[in-house]
Amino acid sequence: MSKTNASYHAQSGDEVLQALSSRSSGLTDDEVSARLQQYGPNKLPQAPQTGTFTRFIKQFANLLVIVLIVAGVLTALLQHWIDSFVIFGVVIVNAIIGVIQEGKAEKAMDSIRNMLALKAAVIRNGKRRTLEGDSLVPGDIVLLEAGDKVPADLRLLRSHGLAIQESLLTGESLPVEKHTKAVSEDAGLGDRECLAFSGTSVTAGQGMGVVIATGATTEIGRIGGLLSDVQKLTTPLVEQMDVLAKWITGIILAIAVVLLLVGTWILEQPFTELFLAVVGLSVAAIPEGLPAVLTITLAVGVQSMAKRNAIVRVLPAIETLGSVSVICSDKTGTFTRNEMMVVSAVTQDAHFEVDGEGYAPVGDILLDGEPTAPQQHSVLRDMARLSALCNDAEIHSKSGQWGIEGDPMEAALLSFAGKVTMPDGGDFRHDWPRTDVLPFDSARQFMATLNHNHNGTGLVLVKGAPEVILKRCGSVLSGDGSHSDLVPEAWLDKAEALARQGQRVLALAGKLVSAEHTVLAAQDVDNGLCLLGLVGLIDPPRQEAIEAVKTCRAARIQVKMITGDHAVTAQAIGKQLGLAHGSVLTGTQLDALSDDELKQAVQSTDIFARTTPEHKLRLVMALQSLGLTVSMTGDGVNDAPSLKRADAGVAMGLKGSEAAKEAAEVVLADDNFASIAAAVEQGRTVYANIKKVVSWTLPTNAGEALTIIVAMLAGLPYPITPVQILWVNMITAVTLGMALAFEPTDKDTMKKPPRPRGQALIQPALVWQIMLVGSLFFLAVFSIYQYAIEAGHEVEYARTQAMNMLVGLEIFYLFFIRTMHRRSISLSGIRGTRVVWSAVGFVVIAQLAICYIPVLQTVFGTRAPDITDNLLIVLTGIVMLIVLEMEKVIRLNVYARVKK
Ligand code: ATP
After folding, report:
1. Strands 446-452 and 434-441
2. Contact 360/402 with Cβ under 8 angstroms?
3. In this predicted structure, what is the pLDDT of residue 2?
4. Which residue, by CA, sits nearest to atom 9 of ligand 1?
5. Least confident of 124-128, 470-474, 629-633
6. Catalytic pick among 83, 140, 148, 330
7. Does 491 sit in the ligand 1 pocket, CB within 6 Å?
8. Residue 635 CA: which ligand 1 atom is closest?
9. pTM for this one?
């Protein structure tokens, strides 16, 4: 093991196994833990993380902060110590909020990354297991198949049509065919065809290899490959809002400079006061907290989606999910439970029913409703042998519970084989080792193996979709061992009868070959097979998928099932799921349609059967051409193009290949259709919350700005000082705005139609709201200030009340925004959420502190207000809520009428 990786390619597989003290049955647990100690986990070094201090410093590289710092320095030069102190205080608090927000965003991204950790199929203690990629050690035996990402550097020991795309290392974009023969010592990386390199992708075939290097010692580790880059938590919409915030900042600063110049040179007002007013205006009008709050909204969204088993790989998908108008999903495992069981076996002479539970290989075989001894039916035993050999799965029992490894359908076939061969449990895999394989491929819809027994007899065994297998059969096996002529139509009818009961049907066939026949080619299974019979498997729909289909339909989202299964099976399952249109379009029918015809057909069809991944791509494009936002699921390596093309590609986390996961925007942790519906609901929630944050922030800023501008133009004393505005914006507004990021899903979220694709966030309605609320804020703040002055209070008292009014109205407005699209004055509206009330509690306490604590009174220039005056603020808040509510009712009614 001390050898460099460089020489393994020049040695034979056996030599490498020996050098690594390994064997094809894999390492033992003790060996693994010793090696894990010695070599460490199979992880690439992590990109260096930015420290908290650096992150804190980085917060100052921001236009607004620089403006504030300049203002702070100038106020200090003008010897307005307190103002300067507050400005610097705000700058620091702002930076702290920035650091916290980035930390939260990073945590959200980290949790996603951990959920997307690479898995590897290995053989340890002679058994196949699926493990986290980072637990691999040198000497481990790894299995590869199309769609996998190679988890460590491997010396291949077996290769069946294995092809690997290695552009990551060699720059060569075409896949390289791999074999197991040693190559010359000085072969370059790209020519070491007996090695598979960590991080590269298997594009075709199957293979097995022994791990020769892990972690940083792999080829990718040596060239300094790091863990995937940290993604920035943002989406197009949030970026748009960032740009908007920057524009507002720029415009306000330009206005401020003009006002300063005009005020000083033309109106000849005192510079100091003007300067402070201009600083106040800038701070008031600029939505400084907005970007931070929006990032938190996204982080909260990413986390709540992950909690509901949808892992967002590509962040803009959060937004897209919210506007999805059609969800296309696979059937097996997504709509159904993927807990399969063979329930029927049909031979030339009989129709057997199979009993049992789960994957336990125990259960009765029934003939005409009565248990029968399977030994009496030789064809059944042949079917069992085929089921066990033409199969890559394993079943195992752990404290009485039967678990599986590999494809559930194949596991079900193993348990069927166990039931048939009871009690001797025919040790087929020992007696008939596999010589070669044509792995299952959803395009050809069958799998074939070549097995030889110890006397050299060769058997080609094939299982797959009945239509595909029957075409290749010349005869059928009878109970007495004789071969008779096959009538394909009769068998297709038998298959359809099983499918009509929702069963997934497989045909099993085989033929004998000579001992010398050791390579299985596609043409070996083209014809001349002998049919053994059919098996029917059940895979019931998931209860939660039935509910989710209902939810989607209420949300006016179309649901389409796109499956490789038989049309009749798909139709039976579709009916149980409650899909809208019961008719089925098969892959062959689809091929016969032109693009225009397909565009018509997709509108009235919800079930597509016997499809291949290429059909999925056409369907996505047809749906998109109808202006729909499409979500498409996939698991296989060939699904990558349609996942990429879909607006929201969704890959299966459990049974999906790495290739599908990499092409998808979202990965489902539980492969469940209900999780897609939940992700859409979360997507809608995030969008609604972003809208709430923006709708709450912009009008409050507008109200503050209006107050200062009017006072300035009218030459009146400012009803609220710049320092107070800074306080309101940075501390109270960010706290309240942040509460909106945590808003739970509204109960009506999935009762509304999807938002049109690409709809702008800032609609005329929002502009109107900014004007209306801004004016109401301005009116109330000015009025209370004037009222206090007229009541004979000093200016500081009046300003305190003006500031309190501003904060009070912000709180009331928050309750209004929370229920933007329905009645706000309701019990549930007032009850709010814990987050909302905590934010309100914090703000009220903070506000009381700066009004009543003497030191803070000095800092913020406040006076202790009377209780009655405080009540007046609450009363004004209630009046504002009523006014806004009335305006909403009128507006919604007018809107509804116009829409009619
Ligand atoms: P979905 O696309 O909804 O997941 P599916 O699993 O039925 O459905 P495919 O995996 O493309 O779709 O399978 C298509 C057909 O190929 C199946 O109906 C079955 O007849 C056959 N098939 C599936 N898996 C295997 C396998 N491991 N070996 C042999 N044949 C298979």
Report:
1. antiparallel
2. yes
3. 40
4. 564
5. 124-128
6. 330
7. no
8. 4
9. 0.82
